[in-house]
Amino acid sequence: MHAMMTPRFSCQGVHPARRTSFVSSMVLLGVDEHWTTRSNNRRSISSQRRKRNGKNAISSSNSSSNNNSSNNGEDDDRIVNEEEERYKMETKSRANKLRAKVIKQYLGAMGEKTNDCFDKEDLVERLTRAWMAKSQNSVRVPLRRVAGVPGNPRAGYCLVTLNVKTEDEDGERFCDFLIDSGATVALVSPELRKMMGKFAEDGAALKGLGAMGETIRQKVVIKNPSLGAVEIPELDAVVTDLRSTGLPPVVGGLLGLDFLKRFEVEFDFDKEIIAFHPKGSAITGVCDVSELIKIRLKTHPTGLQLAPISLNNCAPFDAIIDMGSLFSVINWKASERAGVTKDSPDLDSSGVISNDVTGAQMGLAIGKFNLRVLGEGGNSDLAHDLESTYKGAACVGDLPAFETLGAKNEPFATIEST
C-alpha cells in the first residue's frame, strides 16, 4: 500500500490578495467527477452540533454550562425544524419545475412506480416525498474552517467531526479531522492513536509521499468511527505527527480520498454546510447539480484526482485537487508554459517557506497568473470554466513529490479548492 500525502503547507509572507480563490459557493465531490457553481440552495442541518453538546470533544476550544448546552439544544431543534420545512418547500418547488418525463426518470432511478400517477401534480408529490425520504440518509454538518488567511473569508482548511471510540473513561470522543482531497488515506496524530487504544489495530509500515518526498509511516485501522448517524466499519489511516504542519492542536487527523469516496460530498460555502450524501444522490436528483459546472476528473495511478487547468490561457495540463493546502503550487514547467520565467517581473522569488507533514521545508516563489479550471466544454468554452477571482496566488517550485508522481519534465500543479 502506498499512501499519498500532497502538500500540507505552513506559509510565511503570503498576502491575502495573492491567494487563489475560486468564485464558487458550492462544490460537489464524487468518485469520477467534480462539479462546482456560483450559487446553490441547500438546507443546513446542525444535528451533529447538538450531539457535540455534553460530549467530551478533544476538538473543543470553548466550554459552556449545562444551561447553555440546554439552550443550544433547544435552538438547534428549532433550527432543524425550520430548515426541514424550508427544504421541503424548496424540494417541491424544484420538482415542480421539471418536465413530467424527467420526473419519471428520477422516480424510476429510485425504484418508484409512476403508472398510477395520472397528472403532473401526482408526479411532483411522489418525487418530493421520494427525495425527502432519500435525503434523510445524508449527513449535514456545519462547515468549519481553521488556519485561514486574513481578509479572505473562504480561506482555511475545512474540518469535519468524527465520533471515535476510545479506551478512556468516556468510551468515545468527538475529534476534528481536516478534509484533504490531496491524500489517499486518512492520517491520525500519535495522541489520537494512543487514545483509541484497542479500537485501532496496528498494521504494517507503508510508504507515503509528502510534498518533499517519500516517507515511511505506521498503518492503523480505525474501528467503527461514525459521522453523525453513519457508522463506518473501518477506516485505514497512517500515524503522523501533525505539529510541523502548523495546524492547530484541535486537529486530530486528516480525512483523504479513501474516506471521501464513500460519499458524494457537497460543500456549501455560502451556507457553511458540508453534506455527505449516499452514492447515487446526484443521478437520482436528491442532490441538485442542475446549475453546476461539470469538470471531468482523471484518476492518477496513485488514486489522486486530477483536474484540467490553464494558466494565462496556456494549453491545459493536469493538477491535483488539494483541499489540504492553503494555496496552489505549480512547477517551473507549468510556469514557463504560462509565460512566467524565473526572471519575469510577475514573479516574486522571495515567495514563501513551505513545509509538509514530515517537517521538511522548501522555498517557493510566487507567480502572478490567471488560473482557470476547465469545464467539460473544453478550453475554448469560458462559460463552463471556473476562474480564480483575482490574478496571483500560485506558488512556483519543483516539489520533490511532483517528480515522484511522474511530472519531472511536464507541467504539473496542485490547486487548493476553497
Automatic annotation (TrEMBL):
UniProt superkingdom: Eukaryota
Region entry Disordered, spans: 39-81
Biased composition (Low complexity): 59-72
Species of origin: Bathycoccus prasinos
Pfam families assigned: Asp_protease_2
InterPro entries: Peptidase_aspartic_dom_sf (IPR021109), Retropepsin-like_bacterial (IPR034122)
Full protein name: Peptidase A2 domain-containing protein
